[in-house]
Sequence to fold (197 residues):
Amino acid sequence: MQVLPADAARIVVKVGGSLYDWPDLGPRLRAWLAALAPAQALLVPGGGPAADVIRALDRRHALGEEASHWLALQALSLNARFLQALLPGAVIVDAYEFARQDEGRPGALPHTWDVTSDSVAARVAQVNGARRLVLLKSTDFPEGIDAEEAGRRGLVDTYFARAQGGGEVFALNLRGWRPGSDPLAGATGVWAVTPSD
Fold:
């Protein structure tokens, strides 16, 4: 499990799998991360097409949620290596290794399709004591929406409202963000969530 130094300005950033087909992802993500400076970001890969393959295999072969959970986490490990190739030197979580080490601890995530990389990122933020979680997506979030409603609408996974810790949570449409602007300024704004009790 990767844990940032105690004195680091901790921000966990989930890079949504819906961004992986975007030819500008590498340059735009590098510019966005540079705009965060001096904060240190810990990146969590989204599932994207690799996780969709596991969903399809589960539907076709009835693998079950337990097996599918661990296979999907291994798909996130593949995506972590993809992000590492785009962003050499970035600190990127291997979600499979993180989950293995977190298994059995209080607050560890359940093994269900209700948990996706959104909740994995929330758990990484909680374990690392992050002050902020940023979900980079390919879609805009309505102003004033809370985590439970976002889950009902499919903007985050349905477990996310329970997984988020005590830090600030923002969602940003990276495709709408313009280099040179504030890292949390988006074309349609930023979604903020007050953590659930």
Remarks:
- The longest helix spans residues 65-86.
- Residues 1-9, 186-197 have pLDDT under 50 and may be disordered.
